[in-house]
Write a structure and sequence with these properties.
This protein is α+β, with helices and mostly antiparallel strands. Helix 7 packs antiparallel against helix 8.
């Protein structure tokens, strides 16, 4: 029964190891990009940094990417396990009944079997390398997902305040239209304006009210979008600090070729594609090793307790074995061919990704340059439109200006404010988009913009 005792100890030890991480695959995982999910109090006023962190904590996309990463880490552990021996315990207890004398009774058997693959011409090494490279690809993909959710949260944040600023502008335009309507009604009463002037001013006022109502709807929609990005119900109200909206800087302006070169080194999609190529190269090695011999060691120890013959026997064996594949029905040949085709496919996909990344960096950079210029132009337009509106309103109140001039000036002012607001918030979004296009979007990119 000593064999049973050792078997029990072995099973308990292996069960304990299975609940842990004997190969410490968790150390292969990249550090979390999330600051701390517990430190964000959603009931207080949130900064942009809090918004981004909440999105990374609660967005399902990041959870899916992280679970995929854990899955790949487990596959690395699975590949490493092939370097260790396998131990199996078997046992049986059979009761035999026979009409013959001395042929009935119980037979108990127990055995431990050990199998150890000694050499397989590098197949295990190739499988481990493939698993490790796929883990690297998953880590890069996880980083790409983090940056995508990061940008999504930032866009929702700035779009919310852009919608709020648009509403403020719409309310001010409505006030201007109301003031113009009041001025036209005064002039109509004193006989210095026509009924048509008053009706035109009333129409402009109604249009301003409609614009304000639409702006209120856009704001509520933006609030719902941000809440959804943060993992809340769309009708959840979130208090936010307003961004400082510092004047745009030109620190992004550098050689666009240097940006594209940097993206070739740092972009998560390219890093994932590179790791995938290395994994496929390892798969080719593993497929070739399938057609080669492998050597293994096998050992067993068993105990038989027979009540029929009243015998208690122990048997132990040990042997060195070699397996030589002679003919596999051409399976190995096609397995190698398939692995090579997968390698060529991954290289083609890498080249496509490389071109897409370079184009995205170039286009995003040009968009950011245009937005920078648009801000200056729209700011000049806004200053001119405000002055023009003030002059037109003063002339109309004085009785020397027409209602058409006043309404035209009001419309130009409202459009100028909307264009400036849109350009300003778009600049901050495009700046972050450029960082993501390069593959370097992180919290340092928004320092100074969140409070």
């Amino acid at each position: 029964m000593r064999l049973y005792g050792w078997g029990f100890v072995l099973v308990v030890s292996l069960a304990y190891a299975s609940d842990n991480d004997p190969f410490e695959t968790h150390k292969l995982l990249p550090p979390s990009s999330v600051l701390s999910c517990e430190n964000v109090d959603t009931k207080r006023t949130l900064s942009l940094e809090d918004v981004v962190n909440l999105a990374l904590c609660r967005n399902p996309q990041t959870q899916i990417a992280w679970q995929s990463l854990l899955y790949q880490a487990a596959l690395v552990g699975q590949a490493k396990s092939s370097f260790l021996p396998t131990i199996d315990a078997t046992g049986s207890s059979a009761q035999t009944e026979s009409s013959e004398k001395y042929s009935s009774g119980r037979v108990d058997k127990a055995a431990l079997e050990l199998s150890y693959l000694l050499y397989d011409f590098g197949k295990r090494d190739a499988n481990e390398q493939s698993a490790q490279q796929l883990l690297n690809a998953a880590a890069a993909s996880n980083d790409g997902t983090v940056q995508a959710v990061f940008l999504e949260a930032l866009q929702a944040y700035y779009s919310l305040f852009g919608s709020k600023a648009s509403l403020d502008a719409a309310v001010e335009a409505e006030r201007y239209a109301k003031e113009s309507l009041s001025a036209s009604e005064v002039r109509l009463r004193v006989g210095t304006a026509t009924q048509a002037d008053m009706l035109q001013a009333k129409t402009a006022y109604s249009q301003a009210v409609l614009t304000r109502i639409k702006a209120e709807g856009n704001l509520r929609s933006a609030q719902g979008t941000l809440a959804s990005v943060l993992g809340f119900a769309p009708d959840t109200s979130v208090a936010l600090f307003e961004p400082s909206m510092n004047p745009p800087t030109h620190d992004f302006e550098k050689n666009v070729h240097a940006m594209m070169d940097e993206a070739q080194i740092k972009h998560p999609d390219l890093l994932a594609a590179e790791a995938t190529i290395k994994a496929k190269e390892a798969d080719v090695k593993a497929a070739k090793a399938d057609g080669k011999p492998y050597f293994s060691l096998s050992s067993s120890i068993g105990h038989t307790d027979s009540k029929i013959s009243d015998q208690d026997s122990r048997v132990s064996t040990i042997g060195l074995y070699v397996t030589i594949p002679i003919f596999t029905g051409y399976a190995t040949k096609y397995k190698v061919q398939a692995a090579k085709e997968q390698l060529l496919l991954s290289k083609a996909q890498y080249e496509k990704t490389r071109q897409d990344v370079a184009l995205n960096v170039y286009q995003t950079y040009q968009t950011l340059v245009s937005e920078t210029q648009t801000i200056q132009a729209s700011q000049d337009t806004l200053i001119s439109a405000e002055a023009s509106h003030n002059v037109a309103l003063g002339r109309y109140k004085a009785g020397v200006g027409s209602i058409l001039d006043l309404l035209s000036a009001q419309s130009a002012l409202a459009n100028a404010k909307q264009e400036y607001i849109q350009a300003l918030y778009n600049w901050y979004i495009e700046k972050a988009t450029l960082a993501k296009a390069i593959g370097v979007l992180n919290l340092s990119a928004i320092k100074g913009e969140n409070e």
